Amino acid sequence: MGQRQGSGAGLRQAEAIIVERYPRLLRLAYLVLPPDLDRHARLLRAHRAVQHSLRAAGRRARQGGDPLSAVRAEVVRYAAGRLRGPFPPWVWGLRMWPSAEGLDEEARALAGLSPHARAAHVLCRFDGLDEAEAVEVLAAAGATDPAAEVRAALAAAAGTAEAAGPRLARETILHPADVHTRPTDLLLRRTRVRAAWGALAVLLLAAGLTRATVAGPDPGLPVGYAGAPAARAALDPARLVRVPAQAWADTGRVDFTAWPARGSRTGDRPLLVRALATWAAPPSGTAVTVAPAASAEPPVHPPQLLFAGDPRPGTAAVVFLDADRVVRYTESGGRRSLDVARTDDADVTTAAAVTLTRDGDTARRLLAPWIATAGTRDLTAPADAVRPLPIGPDGTVTTDFPGGRAQGGGCGPRPVLEVASSPRIVEKHAFLLADRGGLLPVHLTYTPPAEGSDAPPARQPREATGPAALARWAQEACALDAVDGRAVRSVNLWDFAVTELPETPGRAVWSCTRATHWTGQGDVQIRLRPPAGNSLTVTRARSTAACGRFGQHVLATTVWRSPSGRDYQLAAGSREVAEIDATGSLRTRTPGRTLAVPAPPASAPPATLTATLRSGARITALDPRGGGRD
Questions:
Q1: Using 50, 70 and 90 to split pLDDT, how confident is the model at 161?
Q2: Could you tell me if residue 201 is left (phi over 0), alpha (psi between -120 and 50 degrees) or otherwise beta?
Q3: In which region does residue 520 sit, left (phi positive, over 0), alpha (psi from -120 to 50) or beta (all else)?
Q4: How far apart are CA 165 and CA 326, in angstroms?
Q5: What stretch of H or E contains 568?
Q6: N- or C-end of the chain: fewer Cβ atoms within 10 A?
Q7: Which of 510, 514, 512, 491 has the alpha carbon at shortest distance from 501?
Q8: Strand, coil or helix: 501
Q9: How confident is the model at residue 467 (pLDDT cuts 50, 70, 90)?
């Protein structure tokens, strides 16, 4: 009896710690897990790691020692080595899509470390443990050489500019608990889960014995779903979520969840059955397109119906919303297709349109119910007026978006969609959407340069509809050719510095074009545009925080050849840069945000440029290798 009481006390201690520190433990598990998992799977596995650590942590706490260290060790043990099986991630009653761009940026920064080194980074960086305490936790978690793992984590942190500053108070940014889920009574849940699995086993056995005599609820549903009540409900057209027509005008959440069901065939049960059945089990010959990092798995709950109709003669389309993804089913001439796109954190702009059909350069699109007007403009002709488009009673428009290059290899017209929100949402709000081949168009924004010697406040991306924004996008329009519309939600053109070029009158603009993916990661392109002539592509980088919300400090450098044929080393930094240093084949130090000095000989190795921020932190220039003239 005494042993059982001790066991209960250990479990209660572990449970209390897990409940109290749940977001921090969740962050620990999330960052230890493999970075190649998508956000949903990773978050669910993180919950699984934290909650499954209860029993083992309780045993450790009962044996003595620090209960918190025991819980941390078990979370690391599960996340680092015990969640690699073939079973899908699953948490009782939860399906979550957190807003965790900063967390994912941190995860990508740790991608080169081992799981135990990633754990050491979190323990030291965010949980405040010293090296000895982190070694103790990793040893208890089963690390072969915990001291080496801690050293690797500290070395990686020391190599980043961010680590040079004070330890960040990022509890509200870098944890994946923004979905507002917490455990209730873990011990009671554990008992219920065991009972549920036992009952499920009995049901599965009974279903197997009676399989030959049990018929499905609908002959259109896949055979594999006929005996599963939850799956049967998710694929039942009668259970589809249908939002009232005016819900968008009376909600604080203006995204795809506010879309009503539109189209002439929302009551066509056979069409809806075919669409849901194809989603659950695509028949042979179905063209399935899944956006990067998206999942084509069938819904686990009835999805929301956004559209069902005939966008063009002979073609039927059905569009569903399932949490953080939009799924489009089309059938035409006996052929079926299924397209899946991500919609993480969609808003009034990124949830403004869905492509229903394409026919060459012509597309039929369904606009959000809050879109009041629509038109097209040529991004390369900023002075031209917008050509209005009629919006059909079902919210659809037809757009003609030719692409490609003009004759002779130049940059041809780049039509974009300009739409305006209803005044019931926001006054005088117009924005640009570019068709980059995806199910959802790409939102275009612009951030103007920060002028003046004193660092002004940071500027947020603005809608690219003003004269200055349109003029700059006209100069960089062909840079959109590199954007993958299946993966990217928005592209921001940021003019982060303006500099005087040697031997040339006028000023050159340094810009960073950031394509932000639905996953939160971003691809950037740094370009230098002289007063005359074509832009110079300085560098490109993938999966980086640079030029985004969590990468606002930028330094870029390139070798530029003047009209006289002389080479100059140029560099420029964002608004907080106070000084630029060059070392290696070039040694110079220049106060301010720009540098322009004669370049070292071409035979010399490239110079290394760094910058000191006003805060005292230092950053390194983005690698200029791979740049070239367009």
A1: very low
A2: alpha
A3: left
A4: 41
A5: strand 567-573
A6: N
A7: 510
A8: coil
A9: very high
Pairing, β 415-421 against β 396-400? unpaired
**Count of beta carbons in the 10 Å neighbourhood of residue 147:** 15
- Residue length of the chain: 630
**172/153 Cα distance (integer angstroms):** 23
- Among the listed residues 25, 20, 12, the one whose alpha carbon sits nearest the alpha carbon of residue 74: 25
Tokens of 173: 């940014």
Q: Which of 161, 84, 91 is nearest to 115 (CA)?
A: 84
pLDDT of residue 563: 87
The mean of the pLDDT values for the chain is 81
H helices present in 114-159, as ranges: 115-125, 131-140, 146-158
CB 31 within 8 A of CB 122: yes
CB burial of 197-221 (b: ≥16 within 10 Å; e: otherwise) equals eeeeeeeeeeeeeeeeeeebebebb
Structure tokens, 560: 């530029």
- The DSSP bridge partners found for residue 397 are 365
Dig out the tokens for 504 from the structure: 């040339």
- Is 445 in contact with 489 (CB distance < 8 Å)? no
User: Which residue has better confidence, 456 or 486?
Assistant: 486
Q: How far apart are CA 546 and CA 579, in angstroms?
A: 19
Q: What is the DSSP letter of 262?
A: B
Cβ atoms 193, 92 nearer than 8 A: yes
The pTM (predicted TM-score) of the whole model is 0.67
pLDDT tens for 433-443 read: 999 999 999 99
Residues 6 or more apart whose CB falls under 8 angstroms from that of 486 comprise 289, 291, 292, 341, 437, 438, 439
Q: Which residue, among 41, 52, 44, 42, has the nearest Cα to 18 in the 3D structure?
A: 52
The predicted pLDDT at position 212 comes to: 32
Q: What is the mean pLDDT of residues 150-176?
A: 57
CB contact at 8 A, 45 and 29? yes
Q: d(Cα 150, Cα 120) in Å, to the nearest integer?
A: 5
Residue 490 near residue 533 (C-beta atoms within 8 A): no
Give dist(CA 358, CA 374) in Å, integer: 18
Single-letter amino acid, residue 321: L
The tokens describing 141, both together, are 């978690």
282: pLDDT strictly greater than 60: yes
Written as one letter, the residue type at 256 is F
Give the burial class of 20: count Cβ atoms within 10 A of its Cβ; 0-12 exposed, 13-18 middle, 19 or more buried: exposed
Select the more confidently predicted residue: 92 or 273.
273
Q: Give the three-class secondary structure for 308.
A: strand
- Tens of pLDDT along 175-184? 555 554 545 4
Q: Which helix (H) or strand (E) holds 52?
A: helix 39-52
- Note whether 457 and 441 are within 8 A (CB): no
Q: How confident is the model at residue 91 (pLDDT cuts 50, 70, 90)?
A: low
Record the tokens describing residue 447, joined without a space.
Answer: 């951030």
Identify the weakest region by mean pLDDT among 72-76, 214-218, 451-455. Answer: 214-218
pLDDT of residue 231: 64
Cα separations (Å) of 394 from 212, 264, 350, 401, 434?
A: 45, 8, 20, 21, 22
The pair of three-digit structure tokens given for residue 586, joined into one six-digit string: 């070039």
